[in-house]
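2024-03-11 09:14:02 DEBUG pipeline.ingest accepted 1 chain
2024-03-11 09:14:02 DEBUG pipeline.ingest length=415
2024-03-11 09:14:03 DEBUG pipeline.predict start
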Amino acid sequence: MDRPVKRRVWRRILLASSGIGLLAVIGLVVWLSTGGWSDVKLSVKLSRQVMQFRADTEAVLNANSHQSFPAREKQMVDRWTEVFAALEEVGPDRPAFRWAYRDIIIIAAPELYQMNYFRPSHVPNGESTTNYRRAIFLGQLADTLRKHPKVCLPVVLGLLDHPDPEVQAVAVGCVWLHPVSPGKTPPEPQPPLNLDFTEYLRAVEEHQKEFVAKLIPMLRHPRPEVRVMVAEIMKRGFVLLEPRVTIELANQFRVERHPHVAGAMASGLAPIPHWRRWRSAEGKQALPLIAEALLDPDKRRMAVDQLVPAGPEARAAIPYAVQVLREADAEGQLDALRLLQATSPDAKATAEAVPALIELLRSTRKYDCQMNALGVLKALGPEAKEAAPAVRELTEDKNSILKTFAADTLKAIAP
């Protein structure tokens, strides 16, 4: 290529570069004149507030909260107020809002994670006030989620996958403070009636599948109160909308060691009508999982409360009920008898318990146990005929009510 041609090529390159640069300058001027400079200033201000918030939070974590109260506590409350004011000033339409909301949760997580919902009622004033302050801050995070769900909800969902359990706990707490499905049971405590959750609920419905997929692993979170919150979130709507939640709650109820958490898992199944719950494919898979909990004295009553509405569908629990009749105390035996009464319409399956019922009649002098055992045998009818000798012995009892009921039972099982 000769020299004149090279010059023409370079001239064209320079002209194109100048044009691009001029367009960039014009675009920058237009952007700044239409509020771009304001965006930059607000983003920088928010960034500084978040950085200061990080520094103050680390200072609180490194200090003794009792010694720092009340000056340190007031400083933190003021800092939180400034951060959320800057966040609202930026607005959800700017990219800085999303990352700032995410950073605030991550920064605050170690401090918020120290809240203990299972602490005895008598605690030092300093620590009690600190927990109250943390609860207020969690409420501020949740309120921002309610106001701007389209921006904040994806952030919270992303943090449910965060490797730090402290961050996961705060993300769950933000969701726990709100309902999750229209027309379902409201959270406890119920939010003020003047708050509008319509946009939030619409956003939840859009992310329903992802919500459930990310909440299910949280049922195994190391912190007990987080597991309670997840169960309550599912109870408010997902247990009705997503059938697989039934199996997950039943399985976690089976392995849960904390009685209070187990109760939350069991109550999570409550919104499902029993006819729909146990006749579905998921319900039939869940029943054996719940039945295993009969062997745990702390969860036995809760398991029976879930199994009894299933009626004969709870036949998978009969072997566990038999074991309880032979090994448990009178209270446990009464729970097992209540379950067997519910399964008695399936007489052939429930007849498996007849030998244990015979042993119970001959070994106990507890009136309630005797009457309930006779009630189960009477419901079984001829399927319980081998219990006739043991029942006949009770027809000679001194208690006239027991004696009469034993005679009626004998007529039913050995007509």
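2024-03-11 09:14:41 DEBUG pipeline.report Residues 116-128, 181-195 have pLDDT under 50 and may be disordered.
2024-03-11 09:14:41 DEBUG pipeline.predict end
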